């Protein structure tokens, strides 16, 4: 029978997360086991791996203040950023005092990811099962979807007429009409005629590409039919027309790109 059994599992090739199960037999000397386990933890730490390693270590952590080998083991793990998630006895026997022999170690300290950890009361063996409820991925922040005013049905004359009517309906008897009161009326009227709407998926993408101006997008829409047309003909005039328009559009796309890069460079220098 092996004195120490170790099983490590990497969940996904692109996810640096290791789940490990270790069993140390009581006949295995503790100092050599401690050295090898510390080397394993250090190796995972150097590889920037998150890990969850547990099971029967046959080391009673309740003896932390009484046995130097337990004290040294816990302190060495803590110096590597490794913490224990189980703090209550896991083994009960009529002939001995309760002991904490089953451990779960991890380097994840975020309480938002570790929802729960503890012991299950179940008679599967003389050791109580230990568990941890862990969120593998970091909690993502809620994405704020951009929105702007919809001017699709906006009519300036109707808006100005409605605004003038609402401003005239302000009641001066309740007190002097302030600029803030007029601003509230203006905003409410504008919300009625040009309400806010959330950006579409394509519009969200365009926010991340400031060099794609409205003029460039319109020009691309005109270029595509020319491209399809020249594919189906051998007319040199149509082919020349397409190439001329394509070259002008290419130059047009580079111009705002250079301006944005220069602007960012200047801001970077100022910072």
Task: Outline the structure in words.
- The protein has 271 residues and is an alpha+beta fold.
- The chain has three domains: 4-134, 4-Layer Sandwich (Deoxyribonuclease I, Chain A); 147-170 and 177-198, no CATH class; 209-270.
- The protein has seven helices and nine strands.
- The chain has helices at residues 30-46, 68-79, 156-168, 179-193, 201-207, 214-231, 236-270, and strands spanning 4-12, 15-24, 50-56, 83-84, 102-106, 114-119, 130-134, 147-149, 196-198.
- It has a five-stranded mixed sheet with strand order 1-2-3-5-4, with helices on one face. The protein has a two-stranded antiparallel sheet with strand order 6-7. The protein has a two-stranded antiparallel sheet with strand order 8-9.
- Helix 1 (30-46) packs parallel to helix 2 and helix 6 packs antiparallel against helix 7.
- The protein is elongated and about 90 Å long.
- The two termini are 65 Å apart.
- The model is unreliable at 264-271 (pLDDT under 50).
